[in-house]
């Protein structure tokens, strides 16, 4: 039997880690490790592409030896996958401990790091790729029945550029998307903070909430809430969530909702706190039901 409330102990630990140098250091270290793990995985993927490329470009009687050793390919993929799961799991945990939130990441999310790591690893692999027997033709050294390359062969030949380039572009797009979402979230937090100062804060009742799987880390859900404006009229709004299953409120639960009493129908000035906390960053924008 414990004489300490475990819930209160977890709350104090989370509060102590929020914004702490220890949580920041752990997040950065695990993020860097995850980036390298994704690069190892990219090296293995690039090695597989190397083998497919050689088979496609050269004749069946030509050279099929890949430049990336088979031992490297065989080890890099499982090691990279396992390391990515472990390191990015820890990165997510410590990143959330640093921010104190489970709804967003500080800096960049795992997807961006995975894509950039894959781009780095595949680029390293392309520097090891075997050169074709000839460019533009599959040379047959046995029967001398050479065949010109088709479109597929030219695409595989150009993979040395487009494979790491495509992954790099996806990583950059993910980074830009995260920057844009961060600015959007910051604007919403500023508006929610303004509404908390000058608007009306009420308890809204959840009237519709989906059943959420309990084995998922986070689920996307839409809940419908009912609240009463300053004149006592009932209004309904929706809120889109991306939260751990245990934080999605069920039917009948009450959550803080803030709105502009001068324009209660303006959904751009209505915010809901799905987790029930009162900080401005906890409030999410509502939509018309």
Textual characterization of the structure:
This protein has 2 domains: 184 residues, no CATH class; 90 residues, no CATH class. The longest helix has 40 residues. The protein is elongated and about 90 Å long. It starts with 5 loop residues before the first helix and ends with a strand. A hairpin with an 8-residue loop joins strand 1 and strand 2. Helices cover 49% and strands 16% of the residues. The mean pLDDT is 90. The strands form 2 sheets. The chain has a 7-stranded antiparallel beta sheet with strand order 8-7-6-3-4-5-9, covered by helices on one side. With 289 residues, it is of the alpha+beta class. Keywords: Membrane, Transmembrane, Transmembrane helix.
- Tally of structural domains: 2
Along the chain, the helix and strand elements come as HHHHEEHHEEEEEEE
Strand order of the largest sheet: 8-7-6-3-4-5-9
**Structural class by helix and strand composition:** alpha+beta
Characterize the biggest β-sheet: 7 strands, antiparallel
Q: How helix-rich are the residues, as a percent range?
A: 40-55%
Mean pLDDT: 90
Number of helices: 6
Radius of gyration: 27 Å
What keyword list fits this structure?
single chain, 289 residues, alpha+beta, seven-stranded antiparallel sheet, two-stranded antiparallel ribbon, 6 helices
